Amino acid sequence: MIKKFLYIYLKKILFFFLKFNFLRTNKKKLTFVSFPDLSDNSWHLFNYINQNKNNLILVWLLEKELSKKKIKYLNKINKNNKLIFIKKKTLMGIYHFLSSRIVFFTHLPYFFLQKNLGPIQVNLWHGMPIKKIGFYRHKANIYFYGDYVIATSNLYKKILCKAFNINKKYVLKFGLPRNDILISKNKKSFNKSNLKLILWLPTFRKAKNFSQIDDSINENFLKEWPSDFIKNLNYIAKKNKIKLIIKTHPLDIIKKFKNKFSNIIFYENIDLINLNYDLHDLISVSDGLISDISSVIIDYILLKKPLGLTTNSQKTFKRGLINEIKLFSELRYHNIRNLRDFEIFFQKVKKNKKNNIDPKNVFYSKNAINSSYQIVKYFNI
Q1: Domain at 183-350: CATH architecture
Q2: What is the torsion angle, in degrees rounded to the nearest 10, for the CA atoms of residue 148, residue 154, residue 158 and residue 161?
Q3: Confidence class of residue 79 from pLDDT cuts 50, 70 and 90?
């Protein structure tokens, strides 16, 4: 109670001083924020702008120093704009935030954000929500979620209006920048070793970085399966000529396997950075996807490839799902509850079966594509 009281009043005090912002807005300055750093929608929008626009100042506000390889690469290839990489939780970070024309973010940059404070604040978020977020979860006006937000369909426009307490005219049905690569003809190559590539992207159950997030009685997704599960799953993958990449969530609490498997690979974010890959680069070249209630399910609609959902986790998931989303009745997917279901799904992928995941375009509208282009045009960048 005391902590909440102090938080509210500290926020009010900071806003009082910051509203007298005498910093001049630099019309050429755009700032980007994401978690993890240099990732997700902010990353893909940034790359589009950096490659197609000139004479801009593009700022990244960073949390950690885990992206040195990406930064070095960007500085090497950059020819068009001035790039600045700065720690978010510094005075210089706040200075760049307040003096920018627009800030694009996937996660809230600062707790003291308010309307009419500094730049235009565009909430790209980190996927179309399935789990309860914002006002669906907190029921109180704790945070300011931005001046604008993007969505993929009319259904999600309504949901994001409620989740972020924002007028519907500021919810832009432009799709997600991270999904531009899914429909692009210029995709990165990936060595599949003459196997079919399936990604398993489970959401987190408990968070290792945010102690207040406790969404399940299980510590991670593997706790929902028998102890010899991975060994047996590898056997099935090998038998069906499948390469299965399990990419863990950035917040997940899971230890890396000491044993190596012939047909299963575990990836963390750092592994993708070392490969010079973004998660959606990998999704774009996959032949099938397995998930649970992660927002990548909505992204995968664009690929029209086999989708498998592990539904046992719903029994132990505590946060709850957004009621307006009839995910399991509206989508076409393969229900995975045991090893036999995995094998059936692997066989579907082997046959290159097309799958119109969202036949009624409930979750992803047909015109919600080329997101980066639409955002750049709308904000006259």
Answers
A1: 3-Layer(aba) Sandwich (3.40)
A2: 0
A3: confident
